[in-house]
Specification:
The chain is α/β, with parallel strands linked by helices. The protein contains 5 helices and 16 strands.
């Protein structure tokens, strides 16, 4: 059984990214040094009871500090009461976190070519993943990120991704940056030219369904990280159910079985809920 820890993490910095996003760095115990790309934390942004429930956030980046301490970063979109409270946090404040939770991306040193697809806030767990892939001694020879958003303001962490050494292809729905259109178009074109050993993806459910369909079409392995509402993060509430592809009656749960799944296991068209 995985170890889960609850603690009051100290805010190191909290940066606003445009009008709709933010990035917060938290000083955590050494327990987070074992966190894997794709895992998440449940956060309560206030010491009171409003909001009542915690919010799930992917671990955006893991930084090892002196004295075996860890810093985790969370990339968040400002959409409701909980995230509006997070924006107000300042260095030195404390925030209650529970984690690391869930199953992350499966990474093999046998991978030679990897494509990563991230849409909007779906970029959140992918920087941690890209850093892990690029730091592997026998990591992929070719690693390309297809980053997309509705507009230029929704393209997140481009400089940070470039700093990892990953190749970057940018798309926006409205053409305000990069190629105009969905990221799945250049992704499929790249697969047609050079099929990868693995596709990793995180983003809106519609995007994930399209990526999974492309992976199935070209018989390529694909792992997807599901964005879904969670109340507990530990399997008690059963509120984050996603439908299995092989059965109309069988469900998996994003907090325990995921949030990262093999795409071939899920009915992405009808299962899950987009945040």
């Amino acid at each position: 059984m995985k170890s889960i820890f609850q603690e009051k993490a100290k805010v190191l910095n909290n940066t606003r990214i445009g009008l709709s996003y933010g990035r917060i760095a938290l000083l955590c115990s050494r327990n987070y040094l074992a966190a894997k790309p794709g895992q998440f934390v449940m956060v309560h942004p206030d010491n009171g009871t409003d909001p009542l429930l915690r919010r799930p956030f992917s671990i955006h980046r893991l930084i090892t500090l002196k004295h075996d301490a860890a810093c985790i970063e969370i990339l968040y979109k400002i959409v409701g009461k909980g995230t509006r409270q997070m924006v107000k946090l300042s260095p030195g404040d404390r925030i209650d976190i529970l984690g690391p939770l869930g199953n992350g991306f499966a990474i093999s040193d046998r991978l030679q070519r990897v494509y990563i697809a991230g849409g909007g806030i779906g970029a959140a767990p992918l920087l941690f993943l890209a850093s892990a892939l690029r730091s592997m001694k026998n990591g992929p020879v070719e690693c390309t990120l297809f980053l997309g958003g509705r507009s230029k303001s929704d393209l997140l962490c481009m400089n940070e991704f470039v700093d990892t050494g990953i190749k970057l292809h940018v798309s926006t729905d409205d053409g305000t940056a990069g190629e105009k259109g969905f990221l799945t178009n250049p992704l499929e074109a790249a697969i047609q030219e050079n099929c990868p050993d693995m596709i990793y993806a995180c983003g809106p459910m519609g995007m994930l369904a399209c990526v999974a369909g492309i992976a199935e079409k070209y018989e390529t392995s694909c792992q997807v990280s599901i964005e879904t509402v969670m109340a507990c993060g530990m399997g008690a509430c059963l509120g984050c159910a996603v439908k299995e592809k092989t059965s109309d009656a069988q469900y998996l749960h994003a907090c325990l079985d995921g949030p990262v799944f093999d795409a071939c296991c899920l009915s992405l068209q009808s299962g899950g809920r987009e945040l």
